[in-house]
Amino acid sequence: IMDLVLKRQKPSVVFDSFDRNKAYVIDLLSGLVKEKFYIILIDKDCKEITKIEFTSFNELAVEVDTSSLARAIAVNTPRHALICHNHTSSSLIPSRADDIATAKIYMLCKIHGVNLIDHIIVSGKHAYGYFIDGRLKNIKDKVDSDDFSKKI
């Protein structure tokens, strides 16, 4: 006699609104004592394909390995991406390093035809969204501007 054990899969999260995205990210990142950075790759139906975790020995900052990210995008062929990380302080204010990382990841996503939908920062049970605040659009506009391309 053989026992059958059925694995229950968690219902798929649909990344189609800031509120849903925020709830997922808060659940993923709240309460951590070290900073973690995730990139969630999302399919055409707005469902998670995979998430990539970046950690660091530095408790205050995480460096994103863009070559690893490029490989993950090439292998998984997502339609969208969501980046998120936690701040171990109580501040939700994005740093200059956060903005630079967002711009780099946006450029990488753009090269691969992936839509970067947001960068969410979590502190405790609170979250800040680049998209909702208009900061993501400003970064995309700067990267896409003629002035930026002339500097390359």
User: Taking strands numbered 1, 2, ... along the chain, how are they ordered across the largest sheet?
Assistant: 2-1-3-4-5
Q: Please tell me how large the radius of gyration is.
A: 17 Å
The percentage of residues in β strands lies in: 15-25%
Calculate the terminal CA-CA distance, rounded to whole Å: 67 Å
Q: Helices and strands, in N-to-C order?
A: HEEHEHEEHHH
What shape does the CA trace take? Answer: globular
What does this structure look like?
It is a single chain. The chain is of the alpha+beta class and 152 residues long. It has six helices and five strands; from the N terminus they run αββαβαββααα. It has helices at residues 18-29, 66-76, 96-111, 130-133, 135-144, 146-151; strands at 37-42, 48-54, 80-86, 115-123, 126-129. Helix 3 (96-111) crosses helix 5 (135-144). It is globular, with a radius of gyration of 17 Å. Mean pLDDT is 86; it is low at 1-9.
Indicate the topology.
Elements: H1 18-29, E1 37-42, E2 48-54, H2 66-76, E3 80-86, H3 96-111, E4 115-123, E5 126-129, H4 130-133, H5 135-144, H6 146-151
Overview in brief:
With 152 residues, the protein is of the alpha+beta class. It is built from six helices and five strands; from the N terminus they run αββαβαββααα.
